[in-house]
């Protein structure tokens, strides 16, 4: 296998000149560039990413750890992260944990040992990475996306959705449409976004003087099947709700299926509003009214914050909050 020294010898230049031609980090005359490129082509030389990373003490890779889920929200966020990495000249190493704690910690250790330049965590409070592993690699910058697995103190940056405001917006929209019997299908209440969206629902109902009958708050799981089961439960309630706020769009899809199976129409027999604005939402029948989370912007912001942290490791911890927006469609 050809080396940089072989290229330099054939081109009649120094190895540092070959390096400057490859990395384009210093001016080299066009004539020399052509000689080096010709030598590279003749020798079929491929630069060593490992050697470059050891020399520069960076790998141009970013690790991302997520909990696998059927919820399309996660794949859309990952798509935004991957696009942002590509545009900024980084590679993304993605690890799904499948909800397995042992697999999560093994993946985390692997990412750290591969010397990723930075780390993105998009998991849940119920599936937390090992604090000991994170603390073992204090020099690797970390950004928490949408939640914070540990206490708020520390160097990790945090990007969150304003779930309290989003839950309030969704519920207020239903109230403004004239609905008074409004139920809520929440996500797991051990997850901060689910709790905050429920609090937003309650705040809007209280502000407008509307009661929440017993049995109108159903705890789901943020998955399609959870929305189906929860809506079936609500349909058995002696005082059927007029409208339902689901804590995310995946559960709204399941709720649609339960209403379809019961022979009920949306929104004539029951209005539905979701949360996240996944791509599928606009193609449902009718299109789903939902709270938009800027997923591409979340991915882009996470990468920008991480790169900024990598360049300034001693800067103060950043806690950023994205503003949810109501997307009015046909389901409410």
TrEMBL record:
Residues 3-46 form the HTH cro/C1-type domain. PROSITE patterns: HTH_CROC1 (PS50943), HTH_LACI_1 (PS00356), HTH_LACI_2 (PS50932). The keyword DNA-binding applies. SUPFAM superfamilies: lambda repressor-like DNA-binding domains, Periplasmic binding protein-like I. It comes from the Bacteria. Keywords: DNA-binding, Repressor, Transcription, Transcription regulation. The gene is rbsR. Residues 2-56 form the HTH lacI-type domain. CDD domains: HTH_LacI, PBP1_PurR. It comes from Intestinirhabdus alba. This is Ribose operon repressor. Pfam families: LacI (PF00356), Peripla_BP_3 (PF13377). The keyword Coiled coil does not apply. One of its GO terms (molecular function) is transcription cis-regulatory region binding.
């Amino acid at each position: 296998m050809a080396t940089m020294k072989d290229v330099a010898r054939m081109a009649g230049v120094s190895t540092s000149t070959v390096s400057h031609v490859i990395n384009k980090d210093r001016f080299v005359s066009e004539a020399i560039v052509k000689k080096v490129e010709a030598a590279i082509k003749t020798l079929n030389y491929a630069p060593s990413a490992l050697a470059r990373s050891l020399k520069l003490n960076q790998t141009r890779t970013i690790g991302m750890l997520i909990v696998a889920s059927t919820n399309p929200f996660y794949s859309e966020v990952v798509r935004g992260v991957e696009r942002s990495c590509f545009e900024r000249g980084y590679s993304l190493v993605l690890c799904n944990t499948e909800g397995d704690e042992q697999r999560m910690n093994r993946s985390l250790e692997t990412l750290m040992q591969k010397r990723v330049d930075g780390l993105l965590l998009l998991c849940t409070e119920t599936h937390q990475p090992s604090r000991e592993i994170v603390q073992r690699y204090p020099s690797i910058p970390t950004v928490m996306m949408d939640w914070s697995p540990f206490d708020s103190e520390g160097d990790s940056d945090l990007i969150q959705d304003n779930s309290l405001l989003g839950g309030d917006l969704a519920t207020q929209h239903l109230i403004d449409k004239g609905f008074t019997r409004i139920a809520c299908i929440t996500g797991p209440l051990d997850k901060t976004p689910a709790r905050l969206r429920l609090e937003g629902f309650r705040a809007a109902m209280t502000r407008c003087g509307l009661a929440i009958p017993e049995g109108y708050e159903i705890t789901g799981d943020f998955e399609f099947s959870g929305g189906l089961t929860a809506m079936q439960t609500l349909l058995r309630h002696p005082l059927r709700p007029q409208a339902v706020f689901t804590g995310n769009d995946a559960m709204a899809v399941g709720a649609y299926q339960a209403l379809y199976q019961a022979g009920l129409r949306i929104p004539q027999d029951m209005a539905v509003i979701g949360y996240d604005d996944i791509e599928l939402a606009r193609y449902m029948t009718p299109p789903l009214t939902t709270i938009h989370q800027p997923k591409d912007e979340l991915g882009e912001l996470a990468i920008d914050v991480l790169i900024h942290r990598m360049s300034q490791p001693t800067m103060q911890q950043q806690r950023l909050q994205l503003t949810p927006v109501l997307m009015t469609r046909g389901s409410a």
